[in-house]
Design goal:
Layout lengths: L2 H21 L13 E4 L2 E2 L7 E3 L2 E5 H7 L3 E5 L4 E5 L4 E5 L4 E4 L2 E4 L5 E3 L2 E5 H7 L3 E5 L4 E5 L17 H14 L5 H16 L7 H5 L20 H11 L10 E3 L10 E5 L2 E4 L1
Parallel strand pairs: 1-13
Antiparallel strand pairs: 1-2, 3-4, 4-11, 5-6, 6-7, 7-8, 8-9, 10-11, 12-13, 14-16, 15-16
Length: 277
């Protein structure tokens, strides 16, 4: 092959290489994040470190929970000790130790307190046993429910969440039927299309009304949809979207086949679904 032929071959390969970049969309990796809400007397509690699951235990920030329950919290650095005082119990916790003290009496817990993002995290069971309250778990909404009679929660402890449990349930249901078999990325994308429509003046302004808008989400009008119990991964994806994780920008539409009429609005393809602005 002469030099001219080699030059043409190189150019052709470069063109194909560039086309590959143009037509292939890297949707990026989405990491599943389980957002656990804590409610005290049915009010969401503000925290700067989310609770998390480890095995069959839920860990919560002792400071934010204790303060919402009306207790004072202190830190003794040289002892790596947290002090909680609710006027009835005086509690001393030690990082990495299963032993703690309540009114100077030694107690033990099955899992030691730990530091996570600068916050002392304790098993949820510790809260119910030592801060004179009842604790329950709502698996459907991934919510810790704490109740304490006669408590007035300080206003600065309340998290004014932008969505309701009903929003989460309906969004989880539509994700279940529209993204069945999809990865967490695909489920998250479908959830965000619904939320983008809620924000758009071209669509209804609630999750429920967007889902049931005539001609938009046919599975929502099928028998059994309103009673559907969403699986965990769909609840997690819906809650991620409601908490602000967005992997499809401002997209308002998706379909399992390309929309020729909206080709100029194409954003990306995820799990076989085409997403459009």
């Amino acid at each position: 092959m002469n030099n001219g032929g080699k030059y043409k071959l190189v150019v052709a390969m470069l063109i194909l290489f560039c086309i590959g970049f143009i037509t292939s969309y890297d949707v990026g990796a989405v990491t599943e994040q389980t957002y656990i809400t804590v409610k005290v007397n049915d009010k969401c509690i503000k925290m700067d470190n989310w609770p998390y699951l480890r095995g069959d235990r839920t860990f919560v920030s002792v400071r934010f929970i204790a303060e919402a329950l009306g207790a004072q919290v202190g830190w003794v650095d040289e002892k790596k000790m947290v002090v909680v005082d609710d006027g009835y119990n005086y509690i001393e916790l030690f990082i990495g130790s299963n032993e703690y003290y309540v009114n100077a009496e030694k107690q033990t817990m099955d899992v030691a307190p730990e530091i996570n993002n600068g916050r002392t995290m304790v098993p949820l069971r510790f809260v119910s046993e030592n801060l004179r309250c009842s604790v329950d778990w709502n698996e459907m909404t991934y919510t810790v429910l704490i109740n304490k009679d006669g408590l007035e929660i300080p206003a600065e402890c309340v998290y004014n969440r932008s969505y309701t449990d009903e929003d989460l349930l309906w969004l989880s249901r539509i994700v279940t039927v529209e993204a069945r078999g999809a990865t967490i990325e695909g489920k998250l994308a479908v959830a965000n299309v619904v939320l983008n429509r809620v924000k758009s003046p071209a669509f209804p302004n609630t999750v429920y009304d967007v889902i049931f808008q005539r001609g938009q989400f046919p599975p929502a009008h099928k028998s059994g949809f309103k009673e559907l119990v969403p699986p965990k991964d769909c609840i997690i994806a819906a809650k991620m979207a409601l908490e602000g994780i967005n992997n499809i920008g401002t997209c308002l539409y998706f379909n399992n086949r390309p929309f020729t009429s909206r080709s100029d609005k194409f954003y990306k393809k995820i799990d076989g679904e085409y997403f459009y602005n």
